[in-house]
Specification:
Rossmann fold; Dehydroquinate synthase-like, alpha domain; 54% helix; 2 domains; two-stranded antiparallel sheet; alpha/beta; 459 residues; globular; 11% strand; 23 helices
Length: 459
């Protein structure tokens, strides 16, 4: 089919293949999305229509089983399904984490007799079930218990693997059954985290466009258009979302699902994950070094978005003629020097981080060509990025209206942790973002205090 005209609706996209002017055919594999009060009762009929067989592995944790999993099990059993509940493992500190161990835990329980999985939970349960079912070549359905993040319908899973937070290719759920009675009574912090994840889109989209401009990578407008109207609706309803009003939670849930679709269309998480996500992932990876627990992903992303948006504003005001390009060339490290530096900075994470940093390192002659292109196309860069970006002040207004965190103190993360992440989170992923751009211009360190102060995140 041809690409429909925005605004896009969920039902318009389900199971469709979109022809696109970018030359790529975009396919949305998810077949059904139900967002309604009492939607859990429709799980059996949804399974009957879209999923094969009668043997079900129900993936939950202790909390999500109590909230919704027990009911899902009963509804499926009453409909003639054989349901085997599987609880994710809890760490010694009482937390359930989407990591290699839990993926393996689920993977080993998917026997030949299991026909499909049903994941009942939010980010952690969904990511683990998604990756394990993908590895085992089984389809899955997800019942979200909180509108806390946009990964439900994406084709990736966010997993803590070998000490590094990674986005790993997986598959999309065949169906999503989202019960507004459950979602609207989720902990307020989780609901606000979902909004935090959504309001990051302007800076992550700008990072994606920046990559295309400087690196020549793939870029398409359709993923942006898919979520554009829904994201604007979330901004307009921020206060009601923060208060858990059912109608507003429905708006947020639709936006999160469309955001997941945008990643599927793009073939990567680029439309929804830029430098702000690297900051959040870095805090996750190093939380145990500082004796603290990880925060909700979206809560961290919301605060990190203020940082990225402010950094963009500072960079836009730069005079490229004032940049000492000769000094940049003189100070540019060869790969061996950089590798030694990364070992010192990232310690036990260095081996994994170096593999990511290597993906975007350029030898000096190639880097000089890139610098020359930036100098010659400075105005063009900002002409392309400005329509995508949203001012940091507006993002702060949205977060405050919802009661979402806007400072590091609210996240329980110290100022030095923020500074370290600001300077070094760029290393943990092979993706080019505004953090790399500032570093390549030689201003990342020099702008650090100004950006952190002007963003307001220091409190």
């Amino acid at each position: 089919m041809s690409t429909p005209t925005p605004p896009f609706s969920i039902q318009q996209l389900l199971g469709k293949t979109l022809s696109c002017t970018c030359g790529v055919e975009h396919t949305i594999p998810t077949q059904a999305v139900i967002i309604a009060e009492g939607a859990l009762e429709q799980v059996p009929s949804c399974c009957t229509r879209y999923l094969p067989g009668k043997q079900v592995l129900l993936v939950v944790d202790e909390v999500t089983y109590r909230i919704a999993g027990e009911r899902v099990q009963k509804y499926l059993a009453d409909a003639g399904y054989a349901v085997e509940p599987l609880f994710l493992r809890t760490r010694a500190d009482g937390r359930v984490v989407a990591d290699d161990e839990n993926v393996a835990h689920v993977r080993t329980r998917i026997r030949d007799a299991i026909d499909f999985l049903v994941a009942v939970g939010a980010g952690t349960v969904n990511d683990v079930a998604k990756l394990a079912s993908y590895q085992a070549e089984r389809p899955y359905l997800v019942c979200p218990t909180a509108p806390s993040m946009n990964g439900f319908t994406s084709g990736i899973a966010a997993i803590l693997s070998r000490g590094v937070k990674r986005t790993i290719p997986a598959h999309t759920p065949v169906a999503v059954v989202a019960d507004l009675n459950i979602l609207s009574t989720a902990p307020p912090a989780m609901i606000r985290a979902g909004l935090g994840d959504m309001i990051s889109k302007p800076v992550s989209n700008a990072d994606w466009k920046l990559t295309q401009l400087i690196k020549g990578g793939y870029y398409c407008e359709v993923p942006l258009r898919i979520v554009e109207e829904a994201e604007q609706a979330c901004r307009a309803n921020a206060a009601a979302i923060g208060q858990g009003e059912k109608g507003a939670i429905g708006i947020l849930t639709e936006a999160l699902i469309l955001s997941g679709f945008s990643m599927v269309v793009a073939g990567s998480s680029s439309p929804a994950s830029g430098g702000e996500h690297l900051l959040s992932h870095y805090w996750d990876m190093t939380a145990h070094w500082h004796g603290r627990e990880e925060n909700f992903h979206g809560a961290q992303v919301g605060v990190a978005t203020l940082v990225s948006a402010t950094l963009y504003e500072k960079l836009q005001r730069l005079d490229p003629q004032a940049i000492d390009w000769t000094a940049l060339r003189r100070q540019y490290p060869d790969w061996e020097e950089l590798e030694q530096s990364l070992h010192k900075i990232h310690g036990p994470l260095a081996v994994e981080v170096i593999a990511e940093a290597r993906k975007k390192y350029l030898p000096l002659p190639e880097k000089e060509k890139e610098w020359q292109w930036i100098r010659e196309n400075w105005d063009t860069i900002w002409q392309e990025l400005s329509p995508i970006l949203v001012p940091a002040a507006r993002i702060r207004e949205i977060l405050l209206a919802a009661g979402a965190p806007t400072t590091m103190r609210e996240l329980g993360i110290g100022a030095e942790e923020l500074r370290t992440a600001f300077l070094h989170a760029k290393d943990i992923r092979g993706r080019y973002t505004v953090l790399d751009f500032a570093h390549d211009l030689g201003v990342l360190e020099g702008l650090c205090e100004e950006v952190l102060s002007e963003s307001g995140v220091l409190g």
